[in-house]
Write a structure and sequence with these properties.
Elements lengths: L2 H25 L3 H18 L9 H21 L21 H14 L4 H11 L4 H8 L3 H19 L2
Helix pairs in contact: 1-2, 1-3, 2-3, 3-5, 3-6, 5-7, 6-7
Keywords: DNA-directed RNA polymerase, Sigma factor, Transcription, Transcription regulation
InterPro entries: RNA_pol_sigma-70-like, RNA_pol_sigma-70_dom, RNA_pol_sigma70_r2, RNA_pol_sigma70_r4_t2, RNA_pol_sigma_r2, RNA_pol_sigma_r3/r4-like, WH-like_DNA-bd_sf
Organism: Arenibacter certesii
Length: 164
Amino acid sequence: MTKDLEHQFVTELEHNQNIVHKVCTLYTNDRDAHNDLFQEITIQLWKAYPKFRGDSKFSTWMYRVALNTAITLYRKSKKSVPTLDYDSVNFKISADEYDPTEEQQLKLMYNALKELGDIDKALVFLYLEDKNYTEIAETLGITEVNARVKMNRIKNKLKTILNP
């Protein structure tokens, strides 16, 4: 690969690395697993980058690769050794704005999300990232109508999980 291609990739990855971190947080339970998944997603992105045609935004393509990698590894891990729960999720809230209620709500939400299926987690993640249904559908490889219907069902399921 050329140095230009390598430089473009590194620049795009640095600019969009929060996407990968959010996917890792959604599909892992501890810091080591998070770091391992981040590394694996980065490797998969690097391998696939020469084939990136630019038909979609880089971030959309990155979501797709990251989610597919996470889902694949998540499914493999379900067949092997379970991980320990990661209770000390660090959320970056400045000290003057700190409200323990908000952090507790975020932990409850992450725990509820972990009860969803693989595709449902990905759909909620993209929805919470303010992606429109067209972009969600494109990233997940489903129709826009299907994305809307699934999201409504997921909202109801989350309400049930969070308010038993």
